[in-house]
Amino acid sequence: MFLYLLSNHIKAKALSTIIGTYECKVDAKGRLLLPAPLKKQLAASLQDGFVLKRSVFQPCLELYPMAEWNLVMAKVNKLNRFVKKNNDFIRRFTAGVKVVEIDNLGRMLIPKDLVAFASIEKDIVLSSGVSIVEIWDKGLYEKAIDDATVDFADLAEEVMGNINEDGNGIS
Q: Do residues 100 and 109 make contact, with C-beta atoms less than 8 angstroms apart?
């Protein structure tokens, strides 16, 4: 049993980083065709499926490969549900969560409630978020990037400035 759990943990930790920002279109029914380079990066996850949810901090959606979602949910499941804040967090975090599939051609249907949440119209941006993909309305994405540009240097220093765990000095 221990070896089974260990092998699953190692497989889950072995998720690759998703790279790239892609512009594409979604039709009136919420269907999108993933760009070929992104589909290729997600190929290992196609069989297991994906979870699509509202972002906590931005007006966008987050596409989690199922293995990544399971890692997040393992953390969430450690929360004591008899603590009201934890229970409220779990309810809000999982609000609107949907299991979605990407077919062999790379097509995915975004449910209408999530299209409405993210104000998705026609032009969208798929942006890598390390091990997930953010799905944005193009106009909202450009605004978020423009708004964040002014403070990015300060943010980068605050978030990454003291990280030199391996001693080789990231620059």
A: yes
